[in-house]
Amino acid sequence: MITMIKTLAAHIKQFKTASLLTPLCMVLEVVTEMIIPLLMASIIDDGISKGDMGHIWKTGGLMIACAAFGLLTGVLGGVFGARASTGFARNLRKAMFENIQTFSFSNIDKFSTAGLVTRLTTDVTNIQNAYQMILRMCFRAPFSLIIAMIMAFAINAELAKIYLIAVFILGIFLMLIVSNAGKSFSEVFKKYDDLNSSIQENVSAIRVVKAYVREDHEKEKFTAASGNIYKMFVKAENIVALNNPLMQITVYTCILLISWLGAKLIISSGGSELTTGELTSLLSYCMNILMNLMMLSMIFVMTTMSAASGRRIAEVLEEKSDITNPDDPDTDIPDGSIEFKNVNFSYRSGDGEPVLKNINLSIKSGETVGIIGSTGSSKSSLVNLISRLYDVNEGSVMVGGKDVRSYDIETLRNNVAVVLQKNVLFSGTILDNLRWGNKEASEEECIRACRLACADEFIERMPEKYNTHIEQGGSNVSGGQKQRLCIARALMKKPKVLILDDSTSAVDTATDAKIRKAFAEEIPGTTKLIIAQRISSVQNSDRIIVLDDGTVSGFGTHEELLETNEIYRDVYESQTGGSGDFDENKD
User: Fold this and answer.
1) What's the CA gap between 483 and 4, in Å, rounded?
2) Three-state secondary structure string covering 457-490
3) Measuring CA to CA, which of 121, 122, 178, 394 is 20 to 30 A from 288?
4) Neighbours of 269 (CB within 10 A)
5) Close Cβ partners of 425 (under 8 Å, ≥ 6 residues apart)
6) Residue 464: its pLDDT value, please?
7) Measured in Å, how far apart are the chain's first and last C-alpha atoms?
8) What percent of the chain is helix, strand and coil (3-state, nearest 5)?
């Protein structure tokens, strides 16, 4: 808990002043509130009882001044509290988002997308509300409670004991309420991940949902996720709702006892032990003490609710990328040669099952190398190691004759362009998307990259050509068009190594051939790694890697593999015979 608080508190930063001024204003407001009942008693005892109008006017003026000052400090406390809490929330969101940007793939694998969204939205809002309440009430309520109790004992210790008994009894009940409600609130926020996941999955796959007429099924999923949150919130709120009746019973009981016993004391003593004004002050302090106790209970509930959110936020903030720059990174990559030396890799370092085992490969700069294998043979895992999207567990991966871990990460990834298996475009124009590869690229450079990727064929047919707007995720272009735009975007980097991770699967064979021909003619110095399921996409490569269950089954030319590698030969015969794809030959 302490570590979590330190992690979160480190992001208050420039809002420390507002965070300090808020409780200060709250304390000043309490002081004025405590003075007002004493002035009221003075008006009754020294003004009304004695018919002294001068005292009444003077004391009444002081009461108005105290009320005005209390109002001012209360308003300022609200302003400073709002500024501090919203600023704190902004800093938390910013810090989380920036830290997520540094994550390696292995870091990202620890969190679900829905979980990260919940942390950035709902959890931060909970912390914001709790922080504002802590600043405004966590200082105000106990300070007010203590001062009111001291004032009550100063007026009449015997009657003030009623408050102590009430506070003790009510405190026990409130602690029971807080502890039980806290458990329910802690559980409910975990369910937000399920709700966000349901929404995200439905929105991103809405075309599939409609194509299969599964709207009712998706509604049921959402209703179930939403219903779970509703039930858990109702359970928690039902417990918290006991606060109000308990508080009312206590307050009314105290008022009755103070009024009854106080009136008897005034009559029996003739006003010597307790005056009417003092009784009025005691009743004011009664409300003050018990209302502040209720505020404290709500603070406990809110902080209990936010503790779960705080832990989830701290998890993201404390997560550090396991892929970092060395102390003196190399910023010069001589060429695009690639070498794997005794590489072993698993997604869970230490206890995970290796997905790549004893990989030894040597690829020359400028070479075109095909990579082929069945689904799950770790083709993507192999190429992800080249640009340090993951780090090897054992062995080393060399680019340009140097271990990739010795390079500056930004330099490495600018020189090793990867078109990932899952193609992603962002909302904006085609030019905006292409300039992700090089933000300072001219329109002519973008057109040339599109020509190499055969994307110019469909772009030129669009009314606005390169200024055509792309919807989020590239939903207004076809799969093949999206792939070609992603290839063009990678080419904008002018990389020494270009990796196409099954990036022409949605492209027809004729266009696939044109892209490969353009690569051979226009970027001969770039090392090209092409992952494919179709042998026709890689058979003209300089060499071909055959992966089988995370190991290299064969490495050679198309002709050599046909003669020496049974897996490759079987796939080639099945595909050229027009009857199969790679996976069929694994059984």
Assistant:
1) 43
2) HHHCCCCCHHHCEECHHHCCCCHHHHHHHHHHHH
3) 178
4) 11
5) 433, 470, 473, 474, 477, 482, 485, 486
6) 84
7) 53
8) 65, 10, 25
Q: Coil, strand or helix: which one is 512?
A: helix
pLDDT band at residue 488 using 50, 70 and 90 as cut-offs: confident
Q: Which residues contact 535 (CB under 8 A, 6 or more apart)?
A: 372, 558, 568, 571, 572, 575, 576
pLDDT at 70: 85
**Residue 218 and residue 204: Cα distance in Å, rounded?**
13
Q: Is 574 in a helix, a strand, or coil? A: helix
* pLDDT tens, position by position, 365-397: 888 898 888 877 888 888 888 888 888 888 899
Among candidate residues 238, 244, 242, the one with its CA nearest the CA of residue 291: 244
DSSP secondary structure, 205-244, as one string: THHHHHHTT-HHHHHHHHHHHHHHHHHHHHHHHHHHTTHH
Distance of CA 538 to the CA centre of its chain: 41
CA 71 to chain centre: 38
Specify the DSSP class assigned to residue 329: -
Q: CA–CA separation, 105 vs 497, rounded Å?
A: 20
Angle at 478 between CA 418 and CA 440, to 5 degrees: 45
What domains are defined for the chain? 2-318 (1.20.1560.10), 338-586 (3.40.50.300)
**Quick one: CA dihedral 144, 150, 153, 155, positive or negative?**
negative
Tokens of 387: 């640009």
Is the pLDDT at 582 greater than 60, yes or no? Answer: no
> CA triplet 494, 496, 498: central angle to 5 degrees?
80
The CA R_g of the chain, rounded to the nearest whole Å, is: 36
